[in-house]
Amino acid sequence: MRHYPSRAKALWTAALSACLFGTAAAKDYTEYGIDEDVPGPGSYETIDGKDYSGRKLTIITHAVPVIGEPTALHAEQFEELTGAEVEVVHVPFGDLFQRIMIPFQTGQQAYDVLFYGSLWLGDYHRYLAPVPEKYQNSSAMQGVTPTYRDVATWGEEMIQFPVDGDRHYLKYRSDIFDDPEMQARYLEDTGEELRVPQTWSEYNEVAQYFTGWDWDGDGEVNYGTAEVTKRDDLMFSAFISRAAPFAKHPDVPGGFFFDLETMEPLINTPGWVRGLELFVEAQEAFPPGGTSFGLGDEIFSFGGGQVLMSYSWDDAFIQAMQEDSRIRNEVGAAILPGASEVWNRETGQWDQLSEPNRVAYITWGWTSAVAGNSPNKDMAFDYLAFFSNQANTKHDLQIGRFGVNPYRTEHFDADFWIEEMGWDEDTATTYVETLEAIDSSDNRVFDLRVPGVGQFMTSLAAGVAEALAGQATPQEALDGVAEEWSRIVDRIGEDRVREAYSTVVAIEDAR
Q1: Class of the 169-342+352-362+442-508 domain?
Q2: What is the pLDDT of residue 232?
Q3: Which of these, 124, 300, 371, 510, has the minimum number of CB atoms within 10 Å of its CB?
Q4: CA separation for the pair 396, 388 (Å, rounded)
Q5: Could you check whether 7-162+365-407 and 169-342+352-362+442-508 share the same CATH topology?
Q6: CATH of domain 7-162+365-407
Q7: How far, in Å, CA of 322 to CA of 34, rounded?
Q8: pTM of the predicted model, to two decimals?
Q9: What are the structural domain ranges in the chain?
Q10: Distances (CA, A) of 134 to 96, 141, 255, 367
């Protein structure tokens, strides 16, 4: 981790400047890796004016690098500015839920600040402190889009502090799709026009064609697609992306994972099964080891130029757009592929569509909160305001491995990426148009946020893994998942799960 000058040195430098020039000038905080401080309750100037000497702040976060690295970076800065002692506890994703939940359940005060997956809100909400009005009214918070304010809210109360905006979308090598020679070759070999895939069936076809040969001329064999397939490393989200357009009917409200009225799992209905069939088929276009890729593998496979396409969070796209990337400005973004048919659970039939059913997947993202039993709420909220101030967010958005993705209105402006980040106009335009399309979509799904969500997603991942490994057909695998989901609902309590799930369905059906 880089070294930052001590608070004493910074204060001494400011005092010396005042003596030399006769008046005190505004402090220069660019030494902290930012371009310019932005006024507000979490700004460098405001936090520099706090004195938390003799106090300790304890933070639990994900392992380095994703979200764990920026947590530690801004904790070190916060220590320098305020005099506080900040302890950062890094935990692997598979253990993070329980490391936070057990102290809550046993009444222990273990952590002040929590970074975690927002889908766990159904379990955590009763243990969190509401975000104070002064932070909600800040320009930094007012800039958060309505979608990500929804993610931070339980009922009518904001109890999570937005630090990230997450969604799944398609990333592709624009230099290949836009190459006339490659277009002519694809047309001759397949009889089809080469285009950014509109449906998941088309995605698989294009990925298969571009597998097993050096199509970008770098001397290395390339492949069609990199996907998150590791059972315990967010594979469930990759599957949801593939299943959504077959299972989320734009005209059928009332639940995507469950029928809200009956709480019957929908996970094994024909739309979900079709999504899994195509997920299994896609394995033919994976790079070596691709059947056990975690999120980090997907980030570096696409971001490093190994594959033509991938889909998941923003991280792989940002990795490809870093200044040292060999494919910088040779990538594009698009909303997830759709489906030409969608299962209608009200009629029990497939509806054929003239245009693909496209579904925006607002997948779980990193979020943060302050423990309700923290004795350091003032310091904890100041840290989160500092972590997410405009200057720090601008810095963190540029680093793919940090896991901080666009969530403010200003991030959806192409000029932000062109002028501030140095992106080419075409790349920036496809990126922000995709973000805006997702954020404004009328047909969207959010992650399940109910008590026991970890049990539901573990069950789903296990079933999908069975199908990917050829140990069960997609229908058999998802039938097993549905049976387990029904048992989980019974254990937790149907009314309790329904009450929590209704908060998700309300925001899905609101538009």
Answers
A1: alpha beta
A2: 81
A3: 510
A4: 9
A5: yes
A6: 3.40.190.10
A7: 16
A8: 0.87
A9: 7-162+365-407, 169-342+352-362+442-508
A10: 29, 10, 35, 19
Query: Is 370 within 8 Å of 381 (Cβ atoms)?
Result: yes
Provide the 3-class DSSP secondary structure of residue 199: strand
Judge whether 478 and 273 are in contact, CB under 8 Å.
Answer: yes
SS3 181: helix
Whether 374 and 239 have beta carbons less than 8 Å apart is answered as no
**Strand 360-362 to strand 444-446: parallel, antiparallel, or no bridges (unpaired)?**
parallel
Residues 507, 255: Cα–Cα separation, whole Å = 11
Rounded mean pLDDT for each run of 10 residues along the chain, 511 residues in total? 37 36 64 95 98 98 95 98 98 93 97 96 96 97 94 93 96 98 98 98 98 97 97 92 98 97 98 98 98 93 97 93 95 98 97 97 92 98 98 92 93 93 95 94 94 95 98 98 98 97 91 65
Query: Three-state secondary structure along 356-395?
Result: EECCEEECCCEEEEEECCCCCHHHHHHHHHHHCCHHHHHH
For the CA atoms of 288, 291, 296, 302, the dihedral, rounded to the nearest 10 degrees, stands at 60
Instruction: Identify residue 328 by its one-letter amino acid code.
Output: R
CA 72 to chain centre: 19
